Amino acid sequence: MTGKLPLSPAFAALNRAASERILILDGAMGTQIQQLGLDEDDYTGHASGHVCRHHTDHPQKGNNDLLILTQPEAVEDIHYRYAMAGADIVETNTFSSTTIAQADYALENAVHDLNVEGARIVRRALDRATAKDGRPRWVAGALGPTNRTASISPDVNNPGYRAVTFDDLRQAYLQQANGLIEGGADILLIETIFDTLNAKAAIFACMQAMETHGQRLPLMISGTITDASGRTLSGQTPTAFWHSVRHAQPWTVGLNCALGAEAMRPHLAELSGVADTLICAYPNAGLPNAFGQYDEGPDDTARQIAGFARDGLVNVVGGCCGTTPEHISAIAEAVAEFSPRKVPEYA
Ligand SMILES: [Zn+2]
User: Fold this and answer.
1) Which parts are annotated binding residues for Zn(2+)?
2) What keywords tag this UniProt record (predicted)?
3) pLDDT at 331
4) To the nearest 10°, the Cα dihedral for 149, 154, 156, 159?
């Protein structure tokens, strides 16, 4: 359905850059936001004067996406630090900016603004970085998995029950994708996929949004392996996952979150062996400790990701939970000497 659309200008530039080197994606937002030590008034904007115009009485502490509207300078500063740490591609802070995820905070009405502004803030941060060093950088509009799954029942006594339908998801993602493109996203990144059916709704919505805007944007699709058998929550191996999303002709396919680089490696190698497109990996900073925190340092993470690069497994690398600008800078330095993976040609 997007096959006839002209490629966006950023698409060609990204292809050129990816043919020359391993590209760098940014790291975690959550860790950086946590360090700001924000309270309820900071989240709602009452402390900064950027009060969200979408009124709700629901508590907002923990609604990190809302900071796009209520703490725009702080969010822009985090994006800027990742850009200056070496990120070529920086993600919007919109992981939960769908009506489905924002329903938890009674802020469904804010979703359009979150996505448009979320993309604009990254663009501003990247333009500032580029003004300093002349390097081009791209905005990846991030679409998270939502907190509901379309293929598994959350009720053990009612296996046929679903908390969300494919069409609910498609509509929510369509609104998100339209907002991200309107705000200037160069790429659409569907990430942390634990349920491939949710991801398929997101893919369909992204394609619809591209049709509306008359351009084909690069699509990045990133699954997450959640158990020791090497499967997604909805039960797919990396190979099965690839064949489920291949029709979308994604610019990259890959893995993020759940595992550190070490544990991700065999699953990434499997995906790299079957996917005839670019491969992207952004693991967590190791596995969480007993307090749910990540304590793998920048050099450790970078050394393991350099191993992915040395073995020709990757085209784009970055960090997920627990990673910081220091991790991204160490990763960028560690992979610089290696060539990007060659995309295999299959019939
Ligand atoms: Zn993560």
Assistant:
1) 257, 320-321
2) Amino-acid biosynthesis, Cobalamin, Cobalt, Metal-binding, Methionine biosynthesis, Methyltransferase, S-adenosyl-L-methionine, Transferase, Zinc
3) 98
4) -40
Q: Domain coordinates of the chain in residue numbers?
A: 9-35+67-335
Mean pLDDT by 10 residues, the chain (347 residues): 86 97 97 94 89 88 96 98 98 97 96 98 98 98 92 86 91 98 98 93 98 97 88 89 96 94 95 97 93 92 98 98 97 98 84
Query: How many whole angstroms separate alpha carbon 186 and alpha carbon 119?
Result: 9
Contacts of 65 (CB under 8 A, 6+ apart): 93, 94, 95, 96, 97, 102, 114, 118
- Homologous superfamily of the 9-35+67-335 domain (CATH): Homocysteine-binding-like domain (3.20.20.330)
Binding site residue list? 257, 320-321
